[in-house]
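Summary for the steering committee. The consortium agreed at its last meeting that each partner would contribute one worked example illustrating the joint modelling workflow. Our contribution is presented below. We chose a case with several input lines so that the handling of multiple components could be demonstrated. No manual editing was applied between input and output; the record is shown as generated.
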Amino acid sequence: MSDVQIWTYALVALSFGLYIGIAIWSRAGSTKEFYVAGGGVSPLANGMATAADWMSAASFISMAGIISFAGYDGAVYLMGWTGGYVLLALLLAPYLRKFGKFTVPDFIGERYYSKTARVVAVICALIVSFTYVAGQMRGVGIVFSRYLEVDINTGVVIGMVIVLFYAVLGGMKGITYTQVAQYCVLIFAFMVPAIFISIQMTGNPVPQLGFGDTLSDGSGTYLLDKLDGLSEELGFAAYTDGSKSTVDVFAITLALMVGTAGLPHVIVRFFTVKRVRDARKSAGLALLFIAILYTTAPAVAVFARTNLIETVSGKEYDQMPEWFSRWEKTGLIAHEDKNGDGKIQYVASPEVNELTVDRDIMVLANPEIADLPAWVIGLIAAGGLAAALSTAAGLLLVISSSVSHDLIKNVLKPDLSEKAELWAARLSAAVAVVVAGYFGINPPGFVAAVVALAFGLAAASFFPAIILGIFYKKMNSKGAVSGMIVGLCLMLFYMLKFKFGIFDGGQEAVAGLQENWWFGVSPEGFGSIAMIVNFVVAIIVNTFTADPPEEVQEIVENIRVPSGAGEAIEH
Amino acid sequence: MSEKQKKATAYWRENLKYLTILLLIWFLVSYGAGILFKDALDSIRIGGFKLGFWFAQQGAIYVFVILIFVYVRLMNKLDKKYGYNED
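What follows is the complete predicted structure of the assembly.
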């Protein structure tokens, strides 16, 4: 075994041991502990847990790579996935905490005094969470297969067993404290290589400043200017300019922000703290912890892109360093010598270009490209697994509580005892893990595409219903339900039409449909339009139907003031 | 309207005022500086960064974090002023 493999095995085994230890220590004894960790989590712990919950395999492995190929356009993810926390902290978290129930469908169901509303909310939560969780299990499998050289499917099964263990045993309580540990692992694993590379390239130990600094070769050239120059020389757009239209950048950013604020597995984290002020504070801490990774990612993107171009472009294929052939074997990087000159042509024009690079390689292989020590390379696997497992666990909890609490306890069988409900919750968590694992092993082609769209779905369905529920006292059930249904269906329709082309002859037709996009907005950004439609429909229907009952209006007045939030109420 | 309700309404008004101001800043740094006025701001440089690009990939995120902590402070004060604090 190589040094890198020994380090990887050791670090992964150590981190898994830690998660299992925490799971045994924090078993859940009641439904309240299972759903909201007993409601007594400190703001600091909740902030870290939220950050780990939120940052998935995509944030850790793929985001820096996406940015390094998209340049300025990558800002949609950076702003979109952080700006949503401002909305969460200011518009949602404090009031939902004051409301003090267990799940998002709980809020929708009671605020809109209707079982239909609750069931619609459960369906939205399940669609959003399942599409998202399948991607995470796949991420676990990929990390295992690339670093530990086991089969992807074996990797997925190992991941399933670990998540099953602490999610089923500990519920929210177990998940919260393992997520705290996972945050520490993943942020350390992300920062160490970034700092090393920043020092190497610019002499500046802070990556956030380093990528705006001059190169350490003494030429006095700024790194970004050099990258802009290199990109244009090869026929790409300048790195600091993008190629998407302003309208689309605007729409995608908005859809991601609002979607973030509407994701049930993020919202539910704010039910776990003690007081309303703790909910506000932990939203701030969560964003701070997330921002550490999100402000480093664009720096990593610039370092990696520059390194890659300098190492490969126009160089002899035979002279490539060892990592090149190692990653060639995984299929993440490929060279086809089209003009037979033995050199690698890496340019924008598809006829001349000879190099295909998977964007994930930018984080996965970055430490090797920069020639960092073996233990740093080993860290990446532990970090990627921490990111994928923590998000998967949070999503599984939403799925299990939607089924056991919202469907079984509140709709189908209201006389269920607490003990039986706890077992129902455990059982649905177990079933959800197995289903997620199945999709991880047999990923339906649409998973990758749909994960990005999960945000659009959340934006189009939950966000308006919750906002109106808090800020518009007279909002009634019929308005909110019609808004949610119209928003969700419109989003699904747009997705099917322009992402999958099912009305125009399938996947091949998709590229040709681009000019028909409504208002020039891509399917990824359409969530913002569907959200606006949801708001408009809800308000119009509300105008023509009866006001909500007095006691519901009193609930709304009550959640607007913080005192007496009490603990999450059993019912 | 009872005394209690009046208090709650006044508290809510002040809260909405804070929200409006903070969300305006939220909009200006991200959609304003990072997207709509990006090209104009790019003519200004700080070190190696063009300003519009910097706002889109760095600055907006820093401001987001600050905004939430400012809100936490403002609301904790407001809670005390109206006697809604829970400690």
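The domain at 3-315+366-449 of chain A is CATH 1.20.1730.10 (Sodium/glucose cotransporter). Chain A has a mean pLDDT of 86.
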